[in-house]
Specification:
Layout (H helix, E strand, L loop, with lengths): L1 H20 L6 H47 L7 H12 L3 H4 L5 H14 E5 L14 E5 L25 E5 L7 E8 L4 E5 L2 E4 L2 E2 L2 E9 L4 E10 L2 E7 L19 E4 L2 E5 L4 E5 L9 H4 L2 E2 L3 E10 L8 E2 L2
Antiparallel strand pairs: 1-2, 2-15, 3-4, 3-15, 4-13, 5-6, 5-12, 6-7, 8-9, 9-10, 11-12, 13-14, 15-16
Subcellular location: Membrane
Pfam family, one: Peptidase_S26
Catalytic activity: Cleavage of hydrophobic, N-terminal signal or leader sequences from secreted and periplasmic proteins
Amino acid sequence: MPVLTALVLAGFGGYAVAWYLGFVEGNFALLLFLATLVTGLYWLAERLVFLPRRRQAAARLEADAGQRSASLAARGITPDHGGDLAAARQRLLMQPWWLDWTAGLFPVILAVFVLRSFLFEPFKIPSGSMIPTLLVGDLILVNKFTYGLRLPVIHTRLTEGTPPARGDVMVFRYPPRPSLDYIKRVVGVPGDEVAYLNKRLTINGQPVPTQPVPDFFDQDAMRYARQFQESLGGKTYRVLNDEDRPAFVPGAEDYPYKQNCRYSVEGLVCKVPPGHYFVMGDNRDNSLDSRYWGFVPDRNIVGKAFFVWMNFGDFKRIGSFE
């Protein structure tokens, strides 16, 4: 078992290193599931097999020591091995290293697995597509149950939950490459007609209320951008527009239901198909979103982003957002 366990741990470690170095495309959900499964099997084996064996060995040791003490006492010799007996018993009952690193870690790994899979999952914002709502380096929490519980890895829905609503900030698996997680704002739900023409958002023929606010200073780019306050689905948030970028959408890919969209020099108009969502970044001219790669299927939904729990460059960022 020690050799087998060493090979298993080496396999996990090798996969993690290869992922970190970019040699393989990692899947943390799958890795965590396998770690939970493997350590759970070791935990069961420890409870049902290995621990009873160690206890039996300790009981035999105590019985042998008792017989030896009785034999010595019969000859008038007072035995004195209490301390040695206790130390030997402790060594017999102690978990070996290969169980410490498997069965011993199972409760922690199980708690992380349940928390991450069904309650809340942490994410780090890697790009500026959601500026000014979310900044690069924000560490956020995503609610995994609002939109319905799903089985990890295979993503099968367990509960219905509440469907995503216009204005929600949603994390989803990027449709062209589902191994990647993206975060955008939902602007169109199934059946909506979404128009983004001349950098103005319209839903079902109704312009989304927008008003200008003071320009936003991007410290990373060291430049100002025009900023607007937008209200959608009962949520109020801010968006950015770059006056130097054209209104039309360059380089749109082929994607399912692309026939539902009409592209022009002014932008695009899309009819959201059933079971899909249209999403956009708040940094409107610096966001790779549904305008370029299409609609988000319901099966790709991960959860609803709602809280910045840390930004090591700016502690004031901590808090909820819309």
